[in-house]
Design brief:
Largest sheet: 11 strands, parallel
Number of helices: 0
Radius of gyration: 15 Å
Structural class: mainly beta
Length: 171
């Protein structure tokens, strides 16, 4: 899935559904080389229905799973992300400007590389449940990592990492 020009993109996880997105066993070629399984040039939000019973499973066999040049938000619903490329240490979630998890979102991440990361900005956890197992950093922020609510179970080469500041006031 490639989002090239949209102010806000929303992936809705409908109550009572199980949805799957996966790539193949060979890396993308040509113009798509290096593209993630879900690649967004603008903001992207993952949200579930009122009951929160929908599930989205993203399995990245060769590519990174989810990359966004701006902001990624998880507000509700269950998102399971597996990255399986141990050779390239593929990442699960990379929001370049920011990654935010809040409300009733449930994230289950198993990544060969980084789990949940912002490569140029902040990671904010205001709620939800995050389970992240990573070959590198489980949760990484280039600037600040702020945790004010939610439940976390994370492990990796480093569990929580931020270049500027880690602030945990709740959760």
């Amino acid at each position: 899935i490639v989002v090239t020009n949209a102010e806000n993109t929303s992936i809705n996880i409908v109550d009572g559904t199980e949805n799957t997105i996966t790539d193949g066993d060979a890396a993308y070629a040509g113009d798509w080389l290096g593209t993630a399984l879900i690649e967004a040039k603008d903001d992207i939000t993952f949200k579930g229905g009122e009951k929160g019973t929908g599930v989205l499973t993203i399995t990245a066999n060769t590519q990174n799973a989810l990359v966004c040049n701006n902001d990624i938000k998880f507000t509700s619903g269950t998102v399971n992300i597996d990255t399986l490329n141990a050779t390239d240490k593929t990442n699960a979630v990379n929001g370049k400007k920011s990654v935010t998890v809040k409300e009733t979102a449930i994230l289950n991440i198993d990544a060969e590389g980084d789990g949940l990361k912002s490569s140029k900005g902040e990671v904010v956890i205001e709620g939800g449940v995050i389970s992240a197992k990573a070959g590198n950093d489980a949760i990484q922020a280039e600037t600040t990592l702020t945790i004010s609510d939610g439940k976390l179970a994370v492990c990796g080469d480093r569990g929580l990492r931020a270049t500027v500041d880690v602030s945990i006031t709740g959760g």
